Amino acid sequence: EAQVTQNPRYLITVTGKKLTVTCSQNMNHEYMSWYRQDPGLGLRQIYYSMNVEVTDKGDVPEGYKVSRKEKRNFPLILESPSPNQTSLYFCASSFRTAEKLFFGSGTQLSVL
Amino acid sequence: DAKTTQPPSMDCAEGRAANLPCNHSTISGNEYVYWYRQIHSQGPQYIIHGLKNNETNEMASLIITEDRKSSTLILPHATLRDTAVYYCIVRVRGDKIIFGKGTRLHILP
């Protein structure tokens, strides 16, 4: 089944403790992206990747890192999480840029 | 800032057609209009997309004005399961994809 898989689904952590949210797609998509969603602010893009080893900043990249060492994986890294990064995170992928996006189920992150 | 403008919320009676408008006055000639919806806190789901011509699939119809500055998503027979936030997006600023806040559609029984 074609899908985008995010893990974990829920995560509670403390300020400053490094964490990684994984994202994997099985559709051989070139484009992958991370979004965060906060009440009243809609979906905001954090980082995106056009292909392996190619990443770029979205609208809200501060405090996040990403890597694209393999086509199927696009992990989101929070080196030193802070409470303002408490949010619902979505990973998405598409065959090419801005084509039909497939989204993961989301990761609800709480930073205490 | 989002390059599309949508009403924040709309109501529609169950069984009636839901018509969701979107303004995208700065759209470029080669930019597609995409529609997605998000039910509760699930991942957004693709609905339909178009460039110039009207499009229809099993979920909805998309009407794009001749000048391409606006479009309307039509859900022909709305059901309670269509209650969701609907996002209209166009490709802007290269490879960034800006979703905006969307329209919260309430289907009334």
Your description of this structure?
- The complex is a heterodimer of chains A (112) and B (109).
- Chain A is mainly β and 112 residues long.
- Chain A contains no helices and eleven strands.
- In chain A, strands 2, 4, 5, 6, 9, 10 and 11 form a seven-stranded mixed sheet that branches. Chain A has a four-stranded antiparallel sheet with strand order 1-3-8-7, with no helix packed on it.
- By secondary structure, chain B is an all-beta fold.
- Chain B contains no helices and nine strands.
- In chain B, the strands form two sheets. A five-stranded mixed sheet of chain B has the order 1-9-8-3-4, with no helix packed on it. Chain B has a four-stranded antiparallel sheet with strand order 2-7-6-5, with no helix packed on it.
- In chain B, a hairpin with a 6-residue loop joins strand 3 (33-38) and strand 4 (45-50).
- Chain B starts with 8 loop residues before the first strand and ends with a strand.
- Classes of the chains: A mainly beta (112), B mainly beta (109).
- At the A-B interface, strand 4, strand 5, strand 9 and strand 10 of A face strand 4 of B.
Shape of chain A: globular
Low-pLDDT windows of residues of chain B: none
**Can you tell me the overall shape of chain B?**
globular
Give the DSSP E fraction of chain B (strand runs of 2 or more residues): 35-45%
Element-level helix/strand string of chain A: EEEEEEEEEEE
The DSSP helix count of chain A reads 0
The pLDDT mean of chain B sits at 90
Give the N-terminus to C-terminus distance of chain B in angstroms. Answer: 35 Å
